[in-house]
Amino acid sequence: MILSLSKDSVSIQREQDVVLFRNRLKEVAVKIKMGLLNQTRLITASSEIVRNMLRYADGGIGLIEVVSRGRDNGIRITFTDQGPGIADISLAMRDGYSTGKSLGLGLPGSKRLVDEFDIKSKMGEGTIVMLLKWTR
Amino acid sequence: MDRIPILRMGSFLLVTIQVDLYDRLALTLEADLVQMVNKTQAKGVLIDISAVSIVDSFMGRIVGNIASMSKILDAETVVVGMQPAVAITLIELGLPLKGVHTALDVEKGMALLKTMIGDEEADESEEDDSVAE
Question: For chain B, which residues make up each domain, given as ranges?
Answer without folding.
Answer: 6-132
